[in-house]
Design goal:
The protein has 333 residues and is an alpha/beta fold. The chain has helices spanning 39-42, 48-66, 135-142, 187-197, 212-224, 229-232, 235-241, 250-269, 283-295, 307-318, and strands at residues 8-13, 17-23, 29-37, 72-75, 89-91, 94-95, 104-108, 111-115, 118-121, 130-132, 159-164, 169-175, 178-185, 277-279, 300-302.
């Protein structure tokens, strides 16, 4: 019989928001608070430490009053040089189930908050340096299976590719739970700039629902021409001027152009002949990447919706923050 008591509070603390999870055995989500303020808002305060402490109290205070000894673990930009404290990075290759040389600990009124380090790639030759902060925890939750504690073998050491779409999309290579390489694409941020601040934005109108046909049209252009995104993007303006694209379809058309260009490049340079990709994103964004990957001849699967919570749990267990010896395991039939 599984113990239904909470075991951990995990925080996915990013630039613009924070989501807190109350977790039980094997990462079961008992409760969650999705509306927390992110690093950007909290660091505008004169007293950064006090601002983060207040936000932690607002999000998790009621949970901690009922369970005062719960361990706290956080990942994301909270550990950046713009966050609560800087948590540093681990250099590739990194086994996500291994303990880092150090774990950043922040004193709070509720006990220590442990901040998970990010990942750093030095780069060489034509390969640039790169960083991950926050997505490393999602990765561990996106894997179908993972060992429960340090020292246990991974269930599979087969090569895998995980795509984490977002403002700064990450393409990650793994062997089992070992991250061997990753690359960042700024597609999400560029999409926001183009559709909000460029000359294309002046013609774009908000749509009541996604225009799938316009998105597919963008993919057609991205996969059908030997031209880069800078050469095709202006068509989002001229097609409207020519009466061939509705203003309400501009954003979905641009989405198809930009995601298509990104996926076409990575499918050509990163994916093996028979390799599949796992997509870790919300359903709407994941669908777009899945459709683009299909155009590139790459099969894809969708990571579980609670990948972040699962990743926080698995990381806390691997780091010894959660004592599995005190956890009551499920009885076998």
């Amino acid at each position: 019989m599984t113990d239904l008591s909470p075991r951990l509070i995990g925080l996915d603390w990013g630039t613009t928001s924070c989501r807190a999870y109350l977790l039980g055995d094997d990462g079961a989500v008992f409760d969650q608070r999705p509306g927390g303020r992110g690093v950007l808002a909290l660091t505008q305060s004169g007293n950064r430490e006090a601002a983060f402490e207040r936000e932690l109290a607002d999000l998790c205070g009621p949970w901690l009053e009922r369970n005062p000894k719960l361990p706290l673990v956080a990942s994301g930009m909270v550990g950046s040089n713009q966050g609560w404290v800087e948590a540093g990075y681990q250099n590739l290759p990194v086994d996500l189930m291994s303990r880092p040389d150090y774990l950043t600990e922040v004193a709070t009124p509720y006990g220590p908050l442990y901040i998970i380090p990010g990942l750093f790639k030095e780069g060489s030759g034509q390969d640039f340096p790169d960083v991950i902060r926050g997505e490393e925890t999602q990765l561990l939750g996106a894997l179908p299976e993972a060992p429960h504690s340090v020292g246990e073998p991974a269930t599979s050491a087969e090569p895998a590719v995980v795509v984490l779409p977002g403002t700064h999309t990450k393409w990650v290579r793994l062997e089992g739970t070992v991250v061997t390489d990753f690359v960042t694409s700024m597609t999400g941020e560029l999409f926001g700039l183009v559709t909000k601040q460029s000359i294309i934005a002046r013609l774009a109108e908000d749509a009541q629902e996604p225009d799938i046909t316009a998105f597919e049209r963008g993919l057609d252009v991205a996969f059908g021409r030997e031209a880069d995104i800078a050469s095709t993007l202006f068509s989002a303006r001229t097609l409207v001027m020519a009466g061939q694209l509705k203003p309400t379809a501009v954003k979905d058309y641009v989405s198809g152009l930009m995601i298509g260009a990104e996926v076409e490049r990575f499918a050509r340079s990163w994916m093996g002949e028979h390799q599949e990709a796992t997509i870790c994103a919300n359903a709407q964004l994941a669908w777009r990447y899945a459709r683009a990957l299909e155009r590139a001849g790459v099969k894809s699967t969708l990571a579980p919706e609670d990948a972040v919570a699962t990743g926080l749990w698995r990381t806390a267990v691997a780091l010894g923050i959660v004592d599995r010896s005190a956890i009551v395991e499920k009885e076998t039939p």
